[in-house]
Amino acid sequence: MTTPAVESDLGWALGAVFRRYVRSAERVLAGLPGGPRGYQVLTSAVEGEACSQQTLAHRLGLDKTVMTYLIDDLERAGLVERRPDPADRRARLLSATAAGRDSLTATAAALRRAEDEVLAPLAAPERDLLRDLLRKLATREDANEACNAPC
Amino acid sequence: MTTPAVESDLGWALGAVFRRYVRSAERVLAGLPGGPRGYQVLTSAVEGEACSQQTLAHRLGLDKTVMTYLIDDLERAGLVERRPDPADRRARLLSATAAGRDSLTATAAALRRAEDEVLAPLAAPERDLLRDLLRKLATREDANEACNAPC
DNA sequence: TATTGTTATACTCTATAACTATA
DNA sequence: TATAGTTATAGAGTATAACAATA
């Protein structure tokens, strides 16, 4: 056996790729509050799909308190805003500022390059295939998850 | 747009799948010290591929101090043993006990079922394809990584 | 002097619990 | 009474630094 046995383990491979991705993304998103997570929140804010902080937190795999801190930072940086939801004034509607949209546009390209660097060992069709397979797994709607639903 | 935009993000999908995997694996490996990580260390120990704790730590994406604690727990549970490497007595050679091998055998099947549950939305050929693609990304040998090398 | 592994310590990150305001 | 969000606090997890043994 010329290859370590852990390397045939799905969990190991998943973890290794995930770590590599996070490292690349953090390098590219160093200037953005919250790094990769902040980027995902900002994306959701720009798309106006943040029904509530809790829904967004769940979708992103975060605790609601972590989401509070994250948005605090993004708001302090002038990238997003929250205002009470008129329909339910306990909840906050998250929206991106002009600066936030600009920041997203600017970083999106760089992040894409970082992704491609992580996917470098794969040919272009394989990259798309992997993206599709992962998305298919990630967006499965089972259990009690209302987190895939749009606003 | 009927689907949240974050869901077309590779990082989001990778994170979501990874979180789902870890949750499943932790449930199945609840009895094993260190959970999924302990499992990976145990696998390496059984295969006798743990040249040094540091090499193994790097391969598994852990700090060397974390590796110490992890092995402490596995050793206390009687699953692995460490003894000085005759070739370099600073290093420890990690090996599995009979109980460790039994434990790995017993949990491997359960873990495989947990994996398949995570991969459930995919057809069998797609699952294999995903495993291959991830492994291809994870085992790329670049930079200064001697961590893919066998012992 | 450099390196492996250990230990102690400090730090970061996350989750728990209590609170405010809405419903 | 229950829920969204916030805040403070405690806890888990991680990394840093100092050390002992060996190279």
TrEMBL record, chains A, B:
InterPro entries: HTH_MarR-typ, MarR/SlyA-like, WH-like_DNA-bd_sf, WH_DNA-bd_sf. One of its GO terms (biological process) is response to stress. SUPFAM superfamilies: Winged helix' DNA-binding domain. GO terms for molecular function: DNA binding; DNA-binding transcription factor activity. The keyword DNA-binding applies. PANTHER family: TRANSCRIPTIONAL REGULATOR, TRANSCRIPTIONAL REGULATOR, MARR FAMILY. The keyword Transcription regulation does not apply. Residues 7-139 form the HTH marR-type domain. It comes from Actinokineospora cianjurensis. Keywords: DNA-binding. This is DNA-binding MarR family transcriptional regulator.
